[in-house]
Amino acid sequence: MKWTRNGTEEITANKGRIHIEESRAGPGLALVFESIETKDKGNYTCKAMVDGKEVQASFVLIVIKPIKFADTATVQTVSEYQNVVVPCEVDGDPEPEINWTVNGKLPQGPKYKVVADGLCIENVTLEDKGEYKCRAYQLSSVKSNVLVRTIILNIEHKPVWRGEEGYEKSYAFISGTANLTCEVTAEPKPKFEWLKGSKTLKSQENATIFQEEFRTILQVQVSSKNAFGDYICKASNSLGKMEQVITLIEVSKPAVPKMSVRGARHDSVQIDIEGPENEELGTLGYRVQYLKRQEMHKGWDSAQEVKFNKAESPYILSGLSQNTQYVVRVATWNAAGFSDYTQERSFSTEKIHADPVTGSTNSAISVSLKASQLITIIAVHNIISVTSELKHNL
Question: Regarding the domain delimited by 258-348, which CATH topology (the fold level of the hierarchy) does it fall under?
Answer without folding.
Answer: Immunoglobulin-like (2.60.40)
